[in-house]
Amino acid sequence: MVIRILIFCFTSLAVGSMYAAGLIRLTTALIVGFGAFCSLFLGVLFLFPVDKERLLLPVYEQVPAWPYLLLAVILAAMLAAFFLYRSSPVRNERADARHFKLLTAGFGCYLASVFLSSLFWFPSDAKRLAASAESLRGEVLGGTILFLCGVCLSCYLLYRASKGNTVKSQDLMRRLVLSLFAVLQLDKVPLLVAYLLLYSPETEVVFPNIAALALSAYLPVSLFLIQTSRETHSGE
User: Fold this and answer.
1) For 118-168, how does the pLDDT look when each residue is reduced to its tens digit (9 = 90+)?
2) Residue 26 CB: number of other CB atoms within 10 A?
3) How do the domains of the chain map onto residue ranges?
4) pTM value?
């Protein structure tokens, strides 16, 4: 466990340092590419016939693969557009307390959406045994929609916070926002949520279709990362 924590901290700091050092386009490409790869992997996995002895994921029902494959294609297209098209000039704002308030609100909204949604995703044993499958599915779907709305709002707030700059540093807030976002590993949260909705060997309660909806949170996250990276002075 200690080794895993150390590896997690090292990778977080490494990716955040890449943003802080100015390797913005490369780092964003790696993050978005990782999301596309994970979506493609799950899509290919669900193309195989259902096998009760499947070792990778305990999903014993036929799961449509097209949502995962479609998400992989969309992320790949966004990544291609990121490199092929340059952004138009943007209006910068002088960094002040308002940008730091937006930064705090953005991260707070992201974390709050995860924790509040978890109340719907993981019901207690008593509730799981008493409620019907349709009732559980409805709660999980509501929690996922709440999570998506929270991610979209937080990405907008963080994007607004990234527009602050100073005379000496035109990308002050952009580098700060992207670095903190990477250090906190918030780009991996959609994958983590989808994994938890897919992998539940103890309760045997899985929601593979809703997991695809949760994984689609990669879209606003990728849009935020790409648009912010395109507007950086070093990315012009």
Assistant:
1) 888 877 666 666 666 677 778 888 889 999 999 999 999 999 998 877 767
2) 12
3) 2-235
4) 0.87
